[in-house]
Amino acid sequence: MKRPTIHDVAAAAGVSRGTVSRLLNGDKYVSPAARVAIERAISETGYVVNRAARSLVTQRTGTVAMVMSEPHAKFFEDPNYSTLTRVAVRKLAERDMSLVMMLAGDEGDRERVVRYVRGGHADGVLLVSTHAGDPLVDALAAGPPAVSCGAVIGRETVIPYAATDERLGARQMTEYLVGQGRRRIAMITGPMDTPGGIQRLEGFADVLGRKASRKLIAHGDWTQASGERAMTELLERSPDIDAVFVASDLMAAGALAALRAAGRSVPGDVAVGGFDDSSVAVSTHPPLTTIRQPLAEVAQETVRLLLALIDGAEHVESVILPTELVIRESA
């Protein structure tokens, strides 16, 4: 069966080929009646837009690259990334655009990302989980518009972003643990070259002041295994810990495993608080008291900012959304 062409659509709609072409390329100067007729003809003929041909006219690819600066294993382990990806795909689909997921966890991956983006294959870039000093950020500077999910350290005023108020969330959790009568409160941070790692530690210290001693702070890398290692380290250093704020739910799941192995009850001996309110938080035993960050809204705002830049906006304002304490059984 012959594939329908733009000529078939024009004939079925009773308009010129040029009018169909203008509509398909986003021209606003097409009458409402012609628009309705063309859309009906497209549906009736089964015509599918040739994206390659359209891109020659519009200089657009209809594609956005989501670039995550983490190893492959982290993408599949952490449910936060699937939330961001799912929402971004849905929001872009509303504009008939596609998302290409690219992982940049090592030098080879970064080189492939740079070749792809600089080669003109994407209209914009969504940056996810960038680290301070990441060479990829500089390498992409000369390319299409970029927006980050979370601030890019050192580039907060240069690269627009959407994020949660991570420092506020950390304060909310620490104040809650203090209010529960906990006196020896430890923390497991995220990587200290990420905004989440830095700002959640800052919020913890805002509340505890000098009580937030180095002895009570251990560092993880957002993975469950790192949370387990860090919790074991904290128990060896300070056996009298009665609470721990863990900077992600996934690491908190690891901390719970370490506490079980050490014979500590939760929350009886040690209260555990997480951060994210991801699917992990309701699957642990006991379920996690945690900080809810509105990741779906963050993803929507990130896409909105990027589309505005792609459409020609010279400047967009970054967006910071509030967090919320969610109380369950772990604290």
UniProtKB/TrEMBL annotation:
<dbReference type="Pfam" id="PF00356">
    <property type="entry name" value="LacI"/>
</dbReference>
<dbReference type="Pfam" id="PF13377">
    <property type="entry name" value="Peripla_BP_3"/>
</dbReference>
<keyword id="KW-0805">Transcription regulation</keyword>
<dbReference type="GO" id="GO:0003677">
    <property type="term" value="F:DNA binding"/>
</dbReference>
<dbReference type="InterPro" id="IPR000843">
    <property type="entry name" value="HTH_LacI"/>
</dbReference>
<feature type="domain" description="HTH lacI-type">
    <location>
        <begin position="4"/>
        <end position="58"/>
    </location>
</feature>
<keyword id="KW-0238">DNA-binding</keyword>
<dbReference type="InterPro" id="IPR046335">
    <property type="entry name" value="LacI/GalR-like_sensor"/>
</dbReference>
<keyword id="KW-0804">Transcription</keyword>
<dbReference type="InterPro" id="IPR010982">
    <property type="entry name" value="Lambda_DNA-bd_dom_sf"/>
</dbReference>
<dbReference type="InterPro" id="IPR028082">
    <property type="entry name" value="Peripla_BP_I"/>
</dbReference>
<protein>
    <submittedName>
        <fullName>LacI family DNA-binding transcriptional regulator</fullName>
    </submittedName>
</protein>
